[in-house]
Description:
The protein has helices spanning 3-17, 19-55, 59-70, 72-85. By secondary structure, the protein is an all-alpha fold.
Amino acid sequence: LTTTNFKSSVLYSTWKQNSAIRFITSGILGNVVFFGLDKMLFPVILRVASRLSVSTDRSVIVSGSKWMKENAASVSFFVAYLLDIA
């Protein structure tokens, strides 16, 4: 048994036996993925809302795009959450 194999087997057995480590690690990874999605979607949502308001004369779409611009952070958060849990 080499030192590398011993270290990896100790890490594996610790990982397997300690559910708190797995829970913390998965929580951190989930938050990193969620933050990345939210950060990536925010400018996209702003761009889409701007294009919708310029591309049409329909009052429903214009008011919807205005609402989307005003609430872009919430829309981005919601869409990122849906993608994260999917």
